[in-house]
C-alpha cells in the first residue's frame, strides 16, 4: 500500500485541468466516506439508485465534507485531528488541492460552498481555546485562503448556506483538549445556532436553548427548501435525563424542540449523529449509531416512528423518503416509515451522506 | 482480505446458529415470560400481599433473566419498561409515591398506568412495593394492593405484547440476507446482532450489576445493587452470565470449552458469596468475593470474544464507538 506522502505526490501531479461537471463523475446523488475491509479509506459517489458512480482512495479516515454545486469537486476533511482537507476531482480521480488550516486551527469536519461554488466555507476551531471560525477559501483561485469569520461559539460543527446568502452554523459548545479530544467544559458548555454574514462579518446572530439544556450539543443540520432548518443534538449531561435530540427552526427563527415518547426516546442513548429532511420535505429523521436507530418526525416535530438498524448513521433524502447508510456497509431506503434494503458492500460507511 | 475470507467461512453456519438461538432460546424465552407474568397478575388478583406474591415474583424473574439482556426488536423498549435499572435519580420511587398519594386512574387502570415513567413500571415497581419495609406491609384493601395489581396486570400485558411482537423479529432473523429483509441484510449481520448482545450482557453485568454496588475503592455502595430489596442482585448477575453462555453455545455451533470453563469460574465465584443482596459488602471479605465475581465475569467476556467472535473476525462498531 502506498504511503500517504506518495499517494498525495502522485495525485497532486495532475492539477490545472479544465473543470468537469458531476455528469463526468458518473452523476452521483450523494457523497459518502467509508472504511474499507483492508483498513484503508475511500470517498464514494452514489447514484440515485444507490449504485456506485465513483470511488476514490483517501489517505486517512475522511469525514464527508461537501460537494461543489456544479464542478465534480468534493472536499473531504481528515477526521481528527482536522489538520488538512483534500479537494478531490471526482471525475478524474485526482487530488486537486490539499488545504491546511492556518496555524493553531483545526478543521471540524464540515464545510459548504457559497456564492455558487466560488467560495468554500469550512468550520474550524482554535486549537487552544476551541473558539469557532468559519474559514473562507477562493475556489476560483486554487482554494486560496480568503479570510475568516468568528462563529460566535465554541467547537463549531456543521454549517449550511441560507438562501439569503447568510450561513448558519451549529456551535457545538464543547471545548476539547488539543491533543486527545477530552471534553473540557461540560459543566459550563453553551452551544448555539449562529447566523453569520460571510461577506460583511459583524457579530453573529446567536440562538441558544434554555439554560437547562446547555449540555445539549447542537452538531448537525439539514435545511429544507423553504428555509426551515432541522438540527440534531447530542446530550452531554446526566445520561438518565431525557432531552429532545431534534430541533426545528422556522424561517422566522422560531425554534421548536422535538422528542419521542419514553421508552423510545431512551433508545437513542442521548445521541443523534446525522439528520435529514425527507425527499418530499414532510418528514425529518435523526439517526443514532449508538442506539442503532432512526427516528422519524413530522414537520411539526411530532414523533412518527422508528427504524432499527445496527450502526446506522448516514442519512440523506431519497425519493419521497430517505437513504440510510451504516457501519456494516448497508444502504437502505425508507419511505412512509418502511425500510427496504438497497445493497450492502464490504465496507463501513462513515457518519454522513452528503446530498449533492 | 481477512474480512472477505471470514465472511465466506460464515456463509452457512451463521444462519444455523441464529436459527438455534431463535428457536431454542428466544422463542421459548418470550413465551415463558408471557406465562410467568400472566401467572403473576393472577396471583396478585388472588392475594396481593407482598409475602404471598413473592414466589410468583421470583418466577417472573426466572423467566425474564434468560432474555433480559438480548435486546433486539421489541425486547429493546421492553427491557426499559419491564426492568428499568439503574434508576440513579430515584424517578421510579418518586412516581410510585406520587401515585399512592393520589387517586389517579393510573393507580387502578393498567392502560393508564402504561403511560407512567418507565422507572415506575415492571420489576422496579415491585422491588419497591414488595421489598421496601415502608411500603410492603400493605393490606388487601389498600391503595398499595391496588397498585400492585395494576403493576402486575401491566407486566402481563407487556409479556403478551412481547410474545406477539417477537414473531416479526424471529422471522427477520430467520430470513436474514433474503431479498427484502431490511433488518438483517446478510446472514452474518444476524449472527453479529446476537453476538453483540452476548457481549453487552456480560459487560453490563460486570460494569453495572456488579460494578455499581462495588462503588469506588474504599467506598462500597450496597444500596446501588440491582433490585436488592427483593434479593435479586446475585441471581440476576449469575443468570445473565448463564444466559450469555447458553446463547453463545447455540450461536457458535462449535464446542466452546474455554467459555464453559470460564462460566464454571463465574459459578464458583457466585457460590462463595454469602449475601445474595450484596448488602454486606462493607465487610472487606464480602467485598473481595464480589470483586472476584466481577473479575470472573470480565474473564468470561474476554473468552467469549476470543472463542466466538475472533474466529469470525468480528470487531467493534465503526460508528457506534466513535462519536462525532
Automatic annotation (TrEMBL), chain A:
Residues 1-21 form the signal peptide. The keyword Signal applies. Keywords: Signal. Pfam families: DUF1513. The keyword Ion transport does not apply. InterPro entries: TAT_signal, UCP028101. It comes from the Bacteria. This is DUF1513 domain-containing protein. It comes from Rubellimicrobium roseum.
Automatic annotation (TrEMBL), chain B:
The keyword Membrane does not apply. Its main location: other. It comes from the Bacteria. Pfam families: Peptidase_M75. Residues 29-302 form the Imelysin-like domain. Keywords: Signal. Gene3D superfamilies: M75 peptidase, HXXE motif. One of its GO terms (cellular component) is cell envelope. Residues 1-16 form the signal peptide. It is found in: Cell envelope. This is Signal peptidase.
Amino acid at each position: 500500500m502506498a504511503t500517504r506522502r506518495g499517494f498525495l505526490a502522485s495525485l497532486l501531479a495532475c492539477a490545472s485541468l479544465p473543470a468537469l461537471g458531476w455528469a463526468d463523475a458518473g452523476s452521483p446523488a450523494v457523497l459518502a466516506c467509508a472504511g474499507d475491509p483492508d483498513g484503508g479509506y475511500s470517498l464514494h459517489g452514489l447514484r440515485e439508485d444507490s449504485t456506485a458512480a465513483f470511488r476514490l482512495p483517501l489517505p486517512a479516515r475522511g469525514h464527508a465534507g461537501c460537494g461543489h454545486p456544479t464542478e465534480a469537486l468534493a472536499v473531504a476533511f481528515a477526521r481528527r485531528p482536522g489538520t488538512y482537507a483534500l479537494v478531490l476531482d471526482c471525475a478524474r480521480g485526482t487530488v486537486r488541492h490539499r488545504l491546511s488550516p492556518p496555524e493553531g486551527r483545526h478543521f471540524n469536519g464540515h464545510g459548504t460552498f457559497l456564492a455558487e461554488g466560488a467560495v468554500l466555507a469550512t468550520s474550524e476551531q482554535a486549537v487552544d481555546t476551541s473558539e469557532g471560525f468559519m474559514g473562507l477559501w477562493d475556489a476560483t483561485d486554487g482554494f486560496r485562503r480568503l479570510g475568516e469569520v468568528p462563529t460566535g461559539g465554541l467547537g463549531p460543527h456543521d454549517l449550511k448556506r441560507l438562501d439569503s446568502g447568510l450561513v448558519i452554523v451549529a456551535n457545538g459548545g464543547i471545548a476539547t483538549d488539543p491533543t486527545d479530544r477530552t471534553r473540557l467544559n461540560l459543566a459550563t458548555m453553551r452551544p448555539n445556532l449562529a447566523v453569520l454574514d460571510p461577506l460583511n462579518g459583524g457579530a453573529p446572530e446567536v440562538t441558544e436553548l434554555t439554560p437547562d439544556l446547555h449540555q445539549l450539543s447542537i452538531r448537525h443540520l439539514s435545511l429544507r427548501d423553504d428555509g426551515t432548518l432541522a438540527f440534531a443534538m447530542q446530550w452531554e449531561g446526566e445520561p438518565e435525563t431525557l432531552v429532545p435530540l431534534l430541533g426545528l427552526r422556522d424561517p422566522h427563527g422560531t425554534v421548536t424542540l422535538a422528542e419521542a415518547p419514553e421508552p423510545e426516546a431512551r433508545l437513542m442513548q442521548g445521541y443523534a449523529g446525522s439528520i435529514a429532511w425527507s425527499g418530499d420535505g414532510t418528514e425529518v429523521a435523526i439517526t443514532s449509531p449508538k442506539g442503532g436507530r432512526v427516528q422519524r418526525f413530522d414537520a411539526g416535530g411530532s414523533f412518527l416512528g422508528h427504524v432499527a438498524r445496527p450502526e446506522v448513521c448516514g442519512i440523506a433524502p431519497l425519493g419521497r423518503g430517505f437513504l440510510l447508510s451504516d457501519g456494516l456497509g448497508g444502504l437502505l431506503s425508507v419511505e412512509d416509515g418502511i425500510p427496504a434494503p438497497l445493497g450492502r458492500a464490504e465496507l463501513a460507511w462513515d457518519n454522513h451522506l452528503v446530498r449533492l | 482480505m481477512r474480512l472477505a475470507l471470514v465472511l465466506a467461512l460464515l456463509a452457512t453456519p451463521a444462519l444455523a446458529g441464529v436459527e438455534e438461538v431463535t428457536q431454542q432460546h428466544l422463542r421459548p424465552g418470550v413465551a415463558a415470560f408471557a406465562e410467568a407474568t400472566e401467572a403473576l397478575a393472577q396471583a396478585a388478583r388472588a392475594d396481593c400481599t407482598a409475602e404471598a406474591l413473592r414466589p410468583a415474583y421470583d418466577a417472573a424473574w426466572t423467566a425474564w433473566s434468560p432474555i433480559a439482556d438480548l435486546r433486539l426488536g421489541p425486547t429493546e423498549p421492553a427491557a426499559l419498561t419491564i426492568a428499568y435499572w439503574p434508576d440513579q435519580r430515584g424517578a421510579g420511587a418518586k412516581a410510585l409515591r406520587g401515585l399512592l398519594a393520589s387517586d389517579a386512574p393510573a393507580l387502578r387502570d393498567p392502560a393508564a398506568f402504561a403511560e407512567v415513567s418507565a422507572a415506575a413500571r415492571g420489576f422496579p415497581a415491585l422491588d419497591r412495593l414488595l421489598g421496601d419495609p415502608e411500603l410492603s406491609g400493605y393490606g388487601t384493601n389498600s391503595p398499595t394492593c391496588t397498585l400492585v395489581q395494576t403493576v402486575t396486570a401491566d407486566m402481563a400485558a407487556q409479556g403478551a405484547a412481547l410474545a406477539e411482537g417477537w414473531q416479526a423479529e424471529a422471522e427477520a432473523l430467520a430470513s436474514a440476507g433474503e431479498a427484502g429483509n431490511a433488518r438483517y441484510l446478510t446472514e452474518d449481520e444476524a449472527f453479529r446482532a446476537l453476538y453483540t448482545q452476548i457481549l453487552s450482557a456480560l459487560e453490563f453485568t460486570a460494569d453495572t450489576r456488579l460494578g455499581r454496588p462495588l462503588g469506588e475503592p474504599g467506598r462500597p455502595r450496597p444500596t446501588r445493587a440491582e433490585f436488592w430489596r427483593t434479593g435479586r442482585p446475585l441471581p440476576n448477575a449469575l443468570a445473565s452470565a448463564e444466559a450469555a453462555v447458553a446463547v453463545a453455545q447455540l450461536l457458535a455451533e462449535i464446542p466452546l470449552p474455554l467459555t464453559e470453563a470460564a462460566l464454571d469460574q463465574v459459578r464458583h465465584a457466585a457460590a462463595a458469596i454469602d449475601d445474595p443482596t450484596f448488602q454486606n459488602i462493607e465487610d472487606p471479605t464480602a467485598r473481595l468475593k464480589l470483586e472476584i465475581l466481577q473479575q470472573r465475569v470480565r474473564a468470561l467476556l474476554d473468552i467469549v470474544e476470543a472463542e466466538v467472535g475472533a474466529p469470525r473476525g468480528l470487531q467493534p462498531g465503526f460508528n457506534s464507538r466513535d462519536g462525532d
